Amino acid sequence: MQLTVIALRRQKRTLATKTIIEVLLAYFAIALVVLSCGYLFPQGGEQVSAVPVVVSIALLLPFYILYRSYLGTTELSKEIEPRDNGTVLFWILILFMLAMSVRIPSVLLFNAPYEKTPLVLLTILTMLVIEKTDISAFGFTTRRFGKSLLYGLLFFLVLNLLNVVILYGLTYVVTGQMAFQSYNVIPFVSVMPFMTLCVGLSEEGLFRGYMQTHLEKLYSPGIAILIQATLFGVWHFVWDLSPLDPFGMVEYVVATFFIGLLFGYFYNKTRSLTPLVFAHGLWNSVAQGTIENPAAFNALGTAPLLIQILVFILPYVVSVLLTIFFVKYFVKRVDSS
Fold it and tell me: How far apart are alpha carbons 277 and 176 in whole angstroms?
Protein backbone atom coordinates (compact mmCIF):
# COMPACT_ATOMS: atom_id res chain seq x y z
CA MET A 1 0.00 0.00 0.00
CA GLN A 2 2.78 2.40 0.96
CA LEU A 3 4.68 1.62 -2.23
CA THR A 4 1.56 2.38 -4.25
CA VAL A 5 1.16 5.77 -2.57
CA ILE A 6 4.82 6.60 -3.20
CA ALA A 7 4.46 5.56 -6.85
CA LEU A 8 1.39 7.76 -7.26
CA ARG A 9 3.20 10.72 -5.75
CA ARG A 10 6.16 10.23 -8.07
CA GLN A 11 3.82 9.96 -11.05
CA LYS A 12 2.07 13.17 -9.99
CA ARG A 13 5.40 15.00 -9.66
CA THR A 14 6.49 13.70 -13.06
CA LEU A 15 3.27 14.92 -14.70
CA ALA A 16 3.61 18.31 -12.99
CA THR A 17 7.21 18.64 -14.18
CA LYS A 18 6.20 17.67 -17.71
CA THR A 19 3.40 20.25 -17.67
CA ILE A 20 5.75 23.01 -16.52
CA ILE A 21 8.27 22.12 -19.22
CA GLU A 22 5.56 22.21 -21.89
CA VAL A 23 4.39 25.65 -20.72
CA LEU A 24 7.98 26.94 -20.79
CA LEU A 25 8.56 25.55 -24.28
CA ALA A 26 5.37 27.21 -25.53
CA TYR A 27 6.37 30.51 -23.92
CA PHE A 28 9.86 30.61 -25.40
CA ALA A 29 8.62 29.36 -28.79
CA ILE A 30 6.16 32.24 -29.10
CA ALA A 31 8.82 34.65 -27.83
CA LEU A 32 11.21 33.39 -30.51
CA VAL A 33 8.59 33.93 -33.22
CA VAL A 34 7.87 37.51 -32.15
CA LEU A 35 11.52 38.46 -31.59
CA SER A 36 12.45 36.94 -34.95
CA CYS A 37 9.88 39.22 -36.57
CA GLY A 38 11.53 42.14 -34.78
CA TYR A 39 14.89 41.07 -36.22
CA LEU A 40 13.66 40.37 -39.74
CA PHE A 41 11.54 43.52 -39.92
CA PRO A 42 13.45 46.17 -37.95
CA GLN A 43 11.94 49.54 -37.21
CA GLY A 44 12.33 51.92 -40.09
CA GLY A 45 9.43 52.51 -42.37
CA GLU A 46 6.01 52.69 -40.72
CA GLN A 47 4.73 49.53 -42.46
CA VAL A 48 7.85 47.45 -41.76
CA SER A 49 8.09 48.37 -38.06
CA ALA A 50 4.47 47.31 -37.59
CA VAL A 51 5.09 43.67 -38.56
CA PRO A 52 6.08 42.38 -35.06
CA VAL A 53 3.13 44.26 -33.59
CA VAL A 54 0.68 42.77 -36.07
CA VAL A 55 2.13 39.29 -35.48
CA SER A 56 1.80 39.79 -31.71
CA ILE A 57 -1.88 40.63 -32.05
CA ALA A 58 -2.53 37.88 -34.61
CA LEU A 59 -1.01 35.21 -32.34
CA LEU A 60 -3.65 35.96 -29.71
CA LEU A 61 -6.39 34.52 -31.95
CA PRO A 62 -5.12 30.90 -32.18
CA PHE A 63 -4.26 31.05 -28.48
CA TYR A 64 -7.83 32.11 -27.70
CA ILE A 65 -9.19 29.26 -29.84
CA LEU A 66 -6.98 26.75 -28.01
CA TYR A 67 -8.07 28.27 -24.70
CA ARG A 68 -11.76 27.78 -25.54
CA SER A 69 -11.05 24.22 -26.62
CA TYR A 70 -9.16 23.54 -23.37
CA LEU A 71 -12.13 24.74 -21.33
CA GLY A 72 -14.32 22.13 -22.97
CA THR A 73 -12.01 19.23 -22.08
CA THR A 74 -10.63 20.12 -18.65
CA GLU A 75 -12.30 20.63 -15.29
CA LEU A 76 -11.00 23.78 -13.62
CA SER A 77 -11.40 25.09 -10.11
CA LYS A 78 -13.33 28.31 -9.65
CA GLU A 79 -11.30 29.11 -6.54
CA ILE A 80 -7.57 29.57 -6.11
CA GLU A 81 -5.98 26.67 -4.27
CA PRO A 82 -4.55 27.74 -0.88
CA ARG A 83 -0.74 27.95 -0.81
CA ASP A 84 1.85 28.92 1.75
CA ASN A 85 3.56 32.26 1.34
CA GLY A 86 6.87 30.68 0.32
CA THR A 87 5.27 28.87 -2.61
CA VAL A 88 3.32 31.97 -3.72
CA LEU A 89 6.37 34.24 -3.60
CA PHE A 90 8.45 31.61 -5.40
CA TRP A 91 6.00 31.39 -8.30
CA ILE A 92 5.61 35.16 -8.49
CA LEU A 93 9.38 35.63 -8.73
CA ILE A 94 9.71 32.80 -11.26
CA LEU A 95 7.09 34.34 -13.56
CA PHE A 96 8.64 37.78 -13.11
CA MET A 97 12.13 36.52 -14.03
CA LEU A 98 10.79 34.54 -16.99
CA ALA A 99 9.03 37.66 -18.24
CA MET A 100 12.22 39.68 -17.77
CA SER A 101 14.25 37.07 -19.66
CA VAL A 102 12.36 38.06 -22.83
CA ARG A 103 11.66 41.69 -21.98
CA ILE A 104 15.29 42.76 -21.48
CA PRO A 105 16.62 41.48 -24.84
CA SER A 106 13.51 42.80 -26.58
CA VAL A 107 14.06 46.33 -25.28
CA LEU A 108 17.85 46.25 -25.74
CA LEU A 109 17.72 44.84 -29.27
CA PHE A 110 14.60 46.48 -30.67
CA ASN A 111 13.64 49.22 -28.19
CA ALA A 112 10.15 47.74 -28.25
CA PRO A 113 8.06 45.60 -25.83
CA TYR A 114 7.72 42.51 -27.99
CA GLU A 115 7.48 40.27 -24.92
CA LYS A 116 3.77 41.03 -24.43
CA THR A 117 2.07 38.20 -26.33
CA PRO A 118 4.43 35.54 -24.91
CA LEU A 119 3.69 36.99 -21.46
CA VAL A 120 -0.07 36.70 -22.02
CA LEU A 121 0.45 33.04 -22.92
CA LEU A 122 2.77 32.39 -19.95
CA THR A 123 0.44 34.00 -17.41
CA ILE A 124 -2.77 32.36 -18.59
CA LEU A 125 -1.19 28.93 -19.10
CA THR A 126 0.19 29.09 -15.57
CA MET A 127 -3.32 29.71 -14.27
CA LEU A 128 -5.01 27.10 -16.47
CA VAL A 129 -2.55 24.28 -17.05
CA ILE A 130 -0.26 24.41 -14.03
CA GLU A 131 -2.66 25.64 -11.34
CA LYS A 132 -5.81 24.17 -12.91
CA THR A 133 -7.77 27.31 -12.05
CA ASP A 134 -10.33 29.19 -14.13
CA ILE A 135 -8.90 32.55 -15.15
CA SER A 136 -12.03 34.31 -13.86
CA ALA A 137 -10.61 33.74 -10.36
CA PHE A 138 -7.78 36.07 -11.35
CA GLY A 139 -10.00 38.87 -12.65
CA PHE A 140 -10.23 37.79 -16.31
CA THR A 141 -13.94 38.31 -16.76
CA THR A 142 -16.21 40.05 -19.27
CA ARG A 143 -19.21 40.32 -16.95
CA ARG A 144 -20.97 43.68 -17.21
CA PHE A 145 -18.64 44.60 -20.05
CA GLY A 146 -20.17 48.04 -20.63
CA LYS A 147 -19.83 48.93 -16.95
CA SER A 148 -16.22 47.72 -17.01
CA LEU A 149 -15.35 49.92 -19.99
CA LEU A 150 -17.01 52.91 -18.34
CA TYR A 151 -15.03 52.37 -15.16
CA GLY A 152 -11.83 52.07 -17.19
CA LEU A 153 -12.58 55.26 -19.12
CA LEU A 154 -13.37 57.26 -15.97
CA PHE A 155 -10.27 55.91 -14.23
CA PHE A 156 -8.13 57.03 -17.19
CA LEU A 157 -9.79 60.46 -17.40
CA VAL A 158 -9.28 61.24 -13.71
CA LEU A 159 -5.78 59.83 -13.29
CA ASN A 160 -4.14 60.59 -16.61
CA LEU A 161 -6.04 63.06 -18.77
CA LEU A 162 -6.87 65.41 -15.89
CA ASN A 163 -3.18 65.52 -15.03
CA VAL A 164 -2.29 66.56 -18.58
CA VAL A 165 -5.05 69.20 -18.73
CA ILE A 166 -3.89 70.79 -15.46
CA LEU A 167 -0.27 70.72 -16.66
CA TYR A 168 -1.18 72.48 -19.90
CA GLY A 169 -3.32 75.00 -18.03
CA LEU A 170 -0.56 75.90 -15.56
CA THR A 171 1.95 76.15 -18.39
CA TYR A 172 -0.28 78.65 -20.14
CA VAL A 173 -0.72 80.67 -16.92
CA VAL A 174 3.05 80.85 -16.39
CA THR A 175 4.22 81.35 -19.99
CA GLY A 176 1.22 82.78 -21.80
CA GLN A 177 1.66 80.11 -24.48
CA MET A 178 -0.49 77.07 -25.26
CA ALA A 179 1.36 73.82 -24.57
CA PHE A 180 -1.15 71.84 -26.61
CA GLN A 181 -0.85 72.41 -30.34
CA SER A 182 -3.01 69.80 -32.07
CA TYR A 183 -4.00 66.15 -32.06
CA ASN A 184 -3.40 63.49 -34.72
CA VAL A 185 -5.84 60.60 -34.27
CA ILE A 186 -3.98 58.22 -36.61
CA PRO A 187 -1.16 57.28 -34.18
CA PHE A 188 -3.76 56.68 -31.47
CA VAL A 189 -5.86 54.38 -33.66
CA SER A 190 -2.83 52.50 -34.95
CA VAL A 191 -1.30 51.68 -31.55
CA MET A 192 -4.46 51.23 -29.45
CA PRO A 193 -5.04 47.54 -30.39
CA PHE A 194 -1.49 46.51 -29.41
CA MET A 195 -1.44 48.66 -26.28
CA THR A 196 -4.73 47.17 -25.12
CA LEU A 197 -4.74 43.55 -26.28
CA CYS A 198 -1.03 42.90 -25.74
CA VAL A 199 0.44 45.47 -23.33
CA GLY A 200 -2.63 45.99 -21.15
CA LEU A 201 -3.65 42.35 -21.11
CA SER A 202 -0.17 41.04 -20.29
CA GLU A 203 0.81 43.55 -17.60
CA GLU A 204 -2.56 43.70 -15.87
CA GLY A 205 -2.83 39.92 -16.09
CA LEU A 206 0.57 39.36 -14.49
CA PHE A 207 0.79 42.10 -11.87
CA ARG A 208 -2.79 42.72 -10.80
CA GLY A 209 -4.41 39.45 -11.91
CA TYR A 210 -1.88 36.79 -10.99
CA MET A 211 0.36 38.47 -8.41
CA GLN A 212 -2.09 40.60 -6.46
CA THR A 213 -4.84 37.98 -6.42
CA HIS A 214 -2.47 35.36 -5.00
CA LEU A 215 -0.93 37.78 -2.52
CA GLU A 216 -4.33 38.85 -1.18
CA LYS A 217 -4.89 35.25 -0.11
CA LEU A 218 -1.92 35.56 2.26
CA TYR A 219 -1.60 39.21 3.24
CA SER A 220 -3.74 42.28 3.72
CA PRO A 221 -4.87 44.07 0.54
CA GLY A 222 -2.43 46.90 1.30
CA ILE A 223 0.59 44.57 1.47
CA ALA A 224 -0.52 42.72 -1.65
CA ILE A 225 -0.88 45.98 -3.58
CA LEU A 226 2.51 47.19 -2.31
CA ILE A 227 4.37 44.06 -3.43
CA GLN A 228 2.89 43.96 -6.93
CA ALA A 229 3.43 47.72 -7.35
CA THR A 230 7.10 47.34 -6.36
CA LEU A 231 7.61 44.65 -8.99
CA PHE A 232 5.64 46.74 -11.50
CA GLY A 233 8.03 49.63 -10.88
CA VAL A 234 11.12 47.42 -11.27
CA TRP A 235 9.55 46.02 -14.46
CA HIS A 236 10.14 49.41 -16.11
CA PHE A 237 13.84 49.87 -15.32
CA VAL A 238 14.76 48.34 -18.70
CA TRP A 239 13.92 51.46 -20.70
CA ASP A 240 16.94 53.32 -19.28
CA LEU A 241 19.50 50.52 -19.67
CA SER A 242 20.81 51.57 -23.08
CA PRO A 243 22.01 54.23 -23.01
CA LEU A 244 22.35 53.89 -19.25
CA ASP A 245 20.55 56.70 -17.43
CA PRO A 246 20.52 56.02 -13.67
CA PHE A 247 18.54 59.17 -12.84
CA GLY A 248 15.95 58.49 -15.52
CA MET A 249 15.76 54.86 -14.41
CA VAL A 250 15.00 55.78 -10.79
CA GLU A 251 12.48 58.38 -11.89
CA TYR A 252 10.68 55.91 -14.17
CA VAL A 253 10.67 53.11 -11.58
CA VAL A 254 9.29 55.40 -8.86
CA ALA A 255 6.62 56.86 -11.18
CA THR A 256 5.41 53.44 -12.32
CA PHE A 257 5.50 52.18 -8.72
CA PHE A 258 2.92 54.82 -7.75
CA ILE A 259 0.89 54.02 -10.84
CA GLY A 260 0.99 50.36 -9.80
CA LEU A 261 -0.37 51.32 -6.37
CA LEU A 262 -3.35 53.11 -7.91
CA PHE A 263 -4.00 50.35 -10.44
CA GLY A 264 -3.80 47.79 -7.64
CA TYR A 265 -6.22 49.77 -5.49
CA PHE A 266 -8.62 50.00 -8.40
CA TYR A 267 -8.41 46.24 -9.03
CA ASN A 268 -9.02 45.56 -5.35
CA LYS A 269 -12.33 47.42 -5.64
CA THR A 270 -13.53 46.10 -9.03
CA ARG A 271 -12.12 42.52 -8.95
CA SER A 272 -12.05 42.71 -12.74
CA LEU A 273 -9.12 43.28 -15.09
CA THR A 274 -11.28 44.52 -17.97
CA PRO A 275 -11.43 48.18 -16.79
CA LEU A 276 -7.69 48.21 -16.15
CA VAL A 277 -6.80 46.64 -19.50
CA PHE A 278 -8.89 49.31 -21.23
CA ALA A 279 -7.43 52.13 -19.10
CA HIS A 280 -3.92 50.79 -19.69
CA GLY A 281 -4.50 50.79 -23.43
CA LEU A 282 -5.80 54.36 -23.34
CA TRP A 283 -2.90 55.49 -21.15
CA ASN A 284 -0.30 54.22 -23.63
CA SER A 285 -2.20 55.27 -26.76
CA VAL A 286 -3.85 58.66 -26.27
CA ALA A 287 -0.54 60.45 -25.75
CA GLN A 288 0.77 59.10 -29.08
CA GLY A 289 -1.36 61.53 -31.05
CA THR A 290 -0.69 64.62 -28.96
CA ILE A 291 1.33 67.34 -30.67
CA GLU A 292 2.75 69.77 -28.12
CA ASN A 293 4.20 73.23 -28.53
CA PRO A 294 7.93 73.06 -27.70
CA ALA A 295 8.11 76.85 -27.34
CA ALA A 296 5.75 76.73 -24.36
CA PHE A 297 7.94 74.27 -22.45
CA ASN A 298 11.10 76.16 -23.44
CA ALA A 299 9.55 79.30 -21.96
CA LEU A 300 8.58 77.34 -18.85
CA GLY A 301 12.24 76.36 -18.50
CA THR A 302 13.14 80.02 -17.94
CA ALA A 303 10.71 80.40 -15.03
CA PRO A 304 11.94 80.23 -11.41
CA LEU A 305 12.73 76.69 -10.28
CA LEU A 306 10.00 76.72 -7.64
CA ILE A 307 7.42 77.62 -10.28
CA GLN A 308 8.63 74.81 -12.56
CA ILE A 309 8.38 72.27 -9.74
CA LEU A 310 4.88 73.48 -8.91
CA VAL A 311 3.74 73.24 -12.53
CA PHE A 312 4.93 69.64 -12.86
CA ILE A 313 4.09 68.34 -9.38
CA LEU A 314 0.68 69.93 -8.72
CA PRO A 315 -1.11 68.14 -11.60
CA TYR A 316 0.06 64.76 -10.28
CA VAL A 317 -0.99 65.54 -6.73
CA VAL A 318 -4.46 66.72 -7.78
CA SER A 319 -5.08 63.81 -10.16
CA VAL A 320 -3.87 61.20 -7.65
CA LEU A 321 -6.01 62.59 -4.83
CA LEU A 322 -9.08 62.76 -7.05
CA THR A 323 -8.40 59.25 -8.32
CA ILE A 324 -8.26 57.88 -4.77
CA PHE A 325 -11.50 59.71 -3.96
CA PHE A 326 -13.17 58.39 -7.13
CA VAL A 327 -12.11 54.79 -6.53
CA LYS A 328 -12.98 54.84 -2.83
CA TYR A 329 -16.47 56.32 -3.11
CA PHE A 330 -17.69 55.59 -6.64
CA VAL A 331 -16.14 52.29 -7.70
CA LYS A 332 -17.65 48.92 -6.74
CA ARG A 333 -17.19 45.32 -7.80
CA VAL A 334 -17.98 45.07 -11.49
CA ASP A 335 -20.30 42.11 -10.95
CA SER A 336 -22.24 43.82 -8.16
CA SER A 337 -25.67 45.37 -8.77
Answer: 37
